[in-house]
Structures are given as structure tokens and as C-alpha cells.
Specification:
- This protein is 74% helix and 0% strand.
- It has 195 residues and is an all-alpha fold.
- It has one domain.
- The two termini are 37 Å apart.
- 18% of the residues are buried.
């Protein structure tokens, strides 16, 4: 994404947060039902005490893990293998076997009676499986990409693997800057109007 656009979005979210603080104060002062002030003692304690929890929530983890997986996938060249090269043909065979083993493991963990990743009522949604779906996908992408990269010769050292994952995080870095502003604004909005 364009840095200028993300910078403006960050500023917009910051200004919206300030306006929400003022609006919550005005609405609570006029005794509007269902509104809590962020400038009250309770509001300030909620805001200051919850900063880390609000920012360090599941979307941040998803961005981080998915970006690492994306970096490994992109740098391994698994998306565009050169099947004319014997190394890459063999690497694809390994990835296919990994994918099959992964699919069987996930089926056993989710589709059998009393499977450990099902909810207590035996459903996939909501369950441990549904809550962990995005991280599982991110790790699966890494599990497929890294061996492909190693076997095909694209990753020659552990440092190459690290750099591949780091490249994904570097690509997602602008989102990591905008996210705290967005998370804080959304959490504040929910707090103010959920009394």
C-alpha cells in the first residue's frame, strides 16, 4: 500500500479517537443513555489499563504470522516453480506429500468423533479449530514453503529462511504501524457505546 495513504489513515484514526473522547464526554454530560465517557475515572482506567490488550489482540498476531508465511512463500518461489529444473520437480513432490500429511492430520483432529479441535458440542464453528484457523494456515504455508526453498536451493542457510520470513514482515510493516490506531479507535468506540 501507499505510505502516504497509510499515513493519512493513521492521522484520521488519531483525530477520530480525539473526537470520540470529546463526544463521549459531551454525550455523558448530557446524560445520553448507553454512553460512557472516556474522560471519566472509569473511562481513563479502562483506556490506560487496556492499551496493551487492545493493541496486542488476535488481528496483530494474524498480520504477523500471515506476513511471515507470505515472505517464506514468495521467497521460496513455490508460487512459480520452474518445473523444468529437476530440483524443483522433486521439491514439488515433497510439498505434495507434506500437504497430504497435513490434510490427513487436520481431518483426524477435526472430523472424527470427539476430535480434539471440535467444540464441546462437536462443532467446527465456533471451536478451537475456528479460533486457530488463520495461524494454522500461516504455519502450513511456512511448513510447505521452507522445505521447498531448501530442496530447490533457494534457501541455502538458516539465515536465508529467516530473511524470507523477515521480508514478509517488512512488507506488512506499514499495516503494523496503522493497526494500533485502528484497534484503539474500535475498542474505544465499543467501550463508549456499550454501556
Amino acid at each position: 500500500m501507499n505510505d502516504r495513504l497509510l499515513a493519512r489513515l493513521s492521522l484520521f484514526l488519531l483525530v477520530a479517537e480525539v473526537l470520540l473522547v470529546l463526544l463521549s464526554w459531551i454525550l455523558s454530560a448530557t446524560m445520553t443513555p448507553g454512553v460512557r465517557s472516556l474522560l471519566s475515572g472509569e473511562g481513563m482506567r479502562w483506556y490506560m489499563g487496556g492499551l496493551v490488550r487492545m493493541v496486542g489482540s488476535w488481528p496483530m498476531v494474524w498480520i504477523l504470522l500471515l506476513s511471515m508465511g507470505w515472505g517464506a512463500l514468495r521467497k521460496s518461489n513455490l508460487l512459480h516453480p520452474q518445473l523444468s529444473l529437476p530440483q524443483e520437480k522433486a521439491s514439488i513432490v515433497v510439498v505434495v506429500f507434506e500437504a497430504l500429511a497435513f490434510a490427513v492430520a487436520m481431518a483426524l483432529l477435526t472430523l472424527t468423533p470427539h476430535a480434539p479441535l471440535l467444540s464441546s458440542t462437536g462443532h467446527l464453528f465456533p471451536s478451537v479449530f475456528s479460533r486457530s484457523l488463520v495461524p494454522v494456515i500461516a504455519f502450513a504455508v511456512m511448513i510447505f514453503s521452507v522445505p521447498f526453498g531448501v530442496l530447490s536451493g533457494r534457501f541455502q542457510t538458516l539465515t536465508d529462511v529467516f530473511r524470507a520470513m523477515k521480508s514478509g514482515v517488512e512488507a506488512a510493516a506499514p499495516l503494523l504501524v496503522v493497526y494500533p490506531f485502528a484497534a484503539q479507535f474500535v475498542a474505544s468506540l465499543i467501550y463508549v457505546f456499550s454501556a
